[in-house]
Amino acid sequence: MPYFLQALWFLLPAGVANMAPVLVKKINFLNYPVDGGKYFLGERLFGDSKTWRGLFFGAVAGVFTIFIQRLFFSQFSLVRSISVIDYLDKDIYMIGFLLGLGALFGDLIKSFFKRRAGVAPGHPWVPFDQIDWIIGALLAVSWLIDLSWQFWLFSLFIFGLLHPAVNIIGYWLKLKSNRF
Predict the structure, then answer these.
(1) Domain range for 121
(2) More confident of the two residues 82 and 43
């Protein structure tokens, strides 16, 4: 149970950032494809759904989430007991930024390979759709935080399993166009 709570708490900024593009899809700000419509080997680099808006709001969501976590960390001993980092540290907002941006870059890189594999945007690509954001987030903060290989494996396993459930909820709430 400790690894579950630790991973859930630590990766919360990345998870919120990963959901941010879906939540802000009706905002026109920076609504331009990251790849600028460019092709590589006959396929789009990333596709229209990977926008500067998503990257921007994902990074903002990561910082905002870690700000809230910092408040909880300073007020509740239970939160302090499950935290793998000190949320009162001076670099905490950089960590939130990196977790958020890392999650979305993980998704962006997966999209590049997904296009090369001939998988259409929005179609499932298991298990990569479930773990891309976790790998990206953990890699992005790995130069600041030393997390054990057990933490990495547990995070990939548990969130790889939880990700489809979150997608189904998003579909039911009409935030996503498909359940995958």
Answers:
(1) 2-172
(2) 82
Compute the distance between CA of residue 15 and CA of residue 8 in angstroms, rounded to an integer.
Answer: 9
Q: What is the DSSP letter of 40?
A: E
Residue 128: in which H helix or E strand, if any? Answer: helix 128-141
Q: What is the pTM of this model?
A: 0.88
- Residue at 178 is within a domain: no
Give CA–CA dist 151/171, Å, rounded.
Answer: 29
Structural domains in the chain (count): 1
Sign of CA dihedral 114, 120, 121, 126: negative
Average pLDDT over residues 111-129: 87
C-beta atoms surrounding 77 within 10 Å: 7
d(CA 180, CA 161): 12
